[in-house]
Amino acid sequence: MNDVAPPRNSHDRTSTPSIDSVSLAIIEQLQEDGRRPYAAIGKAVGLSEAAVRQRVQKLLDQGVMQIVAVTDPLTVGFRRQAMVGINVEGDLDPVADALTAMEEVEYVVMTAGSFDLLIEIVCEDDDHLLEMINKHIRTLPGVRTTESFVYLKLRKQTYTWGTR
To answer: pLDDT tens digits, residue range 67-112?
Structure first.
């Protein structure tokens, strides 16, 4: 499935670019089909192909969006997904940075509430998940506790929230 996903490094909200209604319409077109030709998008939003190409490039350069192939992990050999809540002693940044560098960690969020960090992790199987939590995450300096929420079934995953 080809889709437009939110930028994975969209943590800096201090310089939010201004997005007009035409750019939002372009994003909506790409969310429906990330491979839609610029000419077809232009026709739908009232711009030339060149103008759409320029706007898309600007949106990509500004980090407003990414165009990526979104896969179902189960179909490409990853049988276990989990959300892991992590409590940290001291500064969150070094722990968040270490987690961000791990290939299996897909999402890192600093939170307020029961956990300091929430991560999404994608693993090959239960043994791989156990190894990641026990040998890589819990051993990070500053990690106090973890709580794992193993995904039994993914019912909904969309990326269309960017334009509603």
So the answer is: 888 777 777 878 899 999 999 999 999 999 999 999 999 999 999 9
Angle at 159 between CA 40 and CA 28, to 5 degrees: 25
What is the rounded CA–CA span in Å between residue 45 and residue 21? Answer: 10
Residue 118 near residue 109 (C-beta atoms within 8 A)? yes
Nearest-angstrom CA–CA distance, 162 and 8: 13
The amino acid that residue 45 corresponds to is: V
Both tokens of residue 138?
């819990």
Give the SS3 label for residue 13: coil
What's the token pair of residue 91?
Answer: 């500064």
DSSP percent split of the chain into helix, strand, coil, nearest 5: 40, 25, 40
d(CA 90, CA 143): 9
**131 Cβ partners below 8 Å, 6+ apart?**
none
DSSP 64-132: S-EEEE---GGGGT--EEEEEEEEESS-HHHHHHHHHT-TTEEEEEE-SSS-SEEEEEEESSHHHHHHI
Res. 2: pLDDT tops 50: no
Q: Quick one: which H or E segment has residue 40? A: helix 38-45
